[in-house]
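Section 5.1 Outputs to date
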Amino acid sequence: MPGVHVVTDSACDLTDDLAAAAGITVVPLTIRFGDDELLDRQDLSPAQFWERCKNSAALPQTSAPAPGAFARAYEDAATAGADAVVCLTLSSGVSATYQSALAGSEGLGDRVNVRVIDTRSLTMGQGLLCLSAAEAAAGGASLDEVAAQVDDLIGRTRVFGVVASLDHLQRGGRIGGAAALLGSLLSIKPVIQVKDGLVAEESKQRTRTRSLEYLCGKAKTDAPLERLAICNGAAEDIDVVVDQLADVEVAHKIVVVDLGPVVGTHAGPGTVGVCYQVHAGS
């Protein structure tokens, strides 16, 4: 495995098949249900997570990987022959994972050169950045070249979502209580976005149908796209979104994934995410 190896964390929501095909190492976050601590994607699949959520009164909790978990991923890449490692983490604005990944790179000496990048994104916004980085690395790009491409793409990556309610985001401290209260009182179906590495309310729609149409409209308006992913957080109407976006012009195949525990804990069931990369200059 010569060249640059890509490492990320499980908030990226890449499926095992996508990560394996691209040669990406995924370091899991921990999900806690009461006294049960489970490693994301290893001990707990997205389907199992959503099933447990149905039977749990308490909001699950998430915690960043320990620095040692990242250090092992870097060392494994070096052992496999990598010349360098680029690690793309979820936004430091919502998690300590970036700091943990940085700490894990210390003490490696000259064993392998590691570059840690805060994607300022999450779910498949982060995942698409990883796929782009892996593609560049597979094409022979150097560490500096891969990092420069990722830095450029961060500014061109969009993450939007529709949640069933703002309750989970408010309870998890990811959005203000006033916004959650307003949404509840008016039965608003909010559209959220990741902006400057933080979760923010993007708009208010009166019905679920209108919110999904608005969500799909964001991607259609910004097309043609480089990459596009649809994230399903136990949403019964996910097929509506997939059908509406099926004919969007995009350079790579559209990816549909299950929203995982890291983001799902805070977004709640019924969440639909649309993540994409616009072309340079758009």
